[in-house]
Amino acid sequence: MPKPDVVLVVDDDPAVRTLAARWLSQGGQQVVELDGGEAALAWLEASANRVAAIVLDVMMPGLDGYQVLAAMREHEDMRNIPVVLLTAHANTDQDILQGIELGAFDHLEKPFRGPILSARVRALVEKRRADFEDRLRLKAAESHALKDALTGLGNRRHFDASLAREISYSARHKEPLSLAIVDLDFFKSINDLFGHPEGDRVLAHVASTLAAGLRGSDEAFRLGGEEFCLLFRGTDAQAAALVMGRLREQVKAEPMALGEHDERTITFSGGISSAESANGFDVKDLLDRADRALYRAKQGGRDRIELESPL
Q1: Among this protein's residues, is 276 annotated catalytic?
Q2: Which of 68, 128, 234, 281 has its CA 20 to 30 A from that of 61?
Q3: Which is it for strands 227-233 and 219-224: parallel, antiparallel or unpaired?
Q4: 36 pLDDT more than 80
Q5: Is there a contact between 176 and 236 (Cβ–Cβ < 8 Å)?
Q6: pLDDT, mean over the chain
């Protein structure tokens, strides 16, 4: 995401724009000059995240400054951009209050003093950038809370939320939904023979292979240990089985060098459950149903995929 690095100066008077831009540039700001409200909104719609602050004339032909502020309030990525209103004929208490109510952070009367404009904009730019960094840190923390640290896949918390969302979507739209549980075969022996760091390498490799083989609408998660889960939106059991079979072959086709001299073919067992037209889009206990199918795959010799038993 681009960082806010531009100050927009919006005024229909070229002399005012030039003067404001000169003072702001001398204060270290990167300035873009625009001649009206329409041009300002067009710039914001294309690159709102780049805007650190706006110096906005109130009285302009076409969209005036108040209308620009009102439009900005309707967009989440615009409403927190700090705005300094330039006012020549709108300096009453009512005018100032109107600007504040619409989201303006400050106002200056024309003719303005360059150093004052520069100082006020600089303070707003610094606050905007600090807020931006805070949002980035928050997003990173939220993303970390939903990801498995080892594999980068969604974790159990993420899976629970995604499953609830997909179940709701399937039930509402009467679209198929399939869920697959994957369990690596004989994974404990890898940890026992080669150590947990090598086991972690195997988990990360399998996770990468699973994620790379999915469509954009599908999701992969690590539930814990050597167990993974995949969600397939708009996919019935037979179609999910084809995908899982392909993924199983891809994992199996890439033996891993473990320890100093050993090489292991990695295999997994899988169980699939579905909500589809054949079962009336039954979304109840999808995870348990897939887990029972996984148990049959293990009992049947591993390295295989099983569908849930028909109703």
Answers
A1: no
A2: 128
A3: antiparallel
A4: yes
A5: yes
A6: 89
Span 262-277, pLDDT tens digits:
899 999 999 999 999 9
Q: Where does the pLDDT of residue 105 fall: very low under 50, low under 70, confident under 90, or very high at 90 and above?
A: low
- Would you say residue 96 has pLDDT above 70? no
Judge whether 69 and 86 are in contact, CB under 8 Å: no
Asked if pLDDT for residue 152 goes beyond 70, the answer is yes
Nearest CA-CA partner of 69 in 117, 81, 47 = 81
226, 276, 306, 308: the catalytic one is: 226
What's the chain's length in residues? Answer: 311
Q: What percent of the chain has pLDDT over 70?
A: 93
Pick the range with the lowest mean pLDDT from 44-58, 78-92, 208-222: 78-92
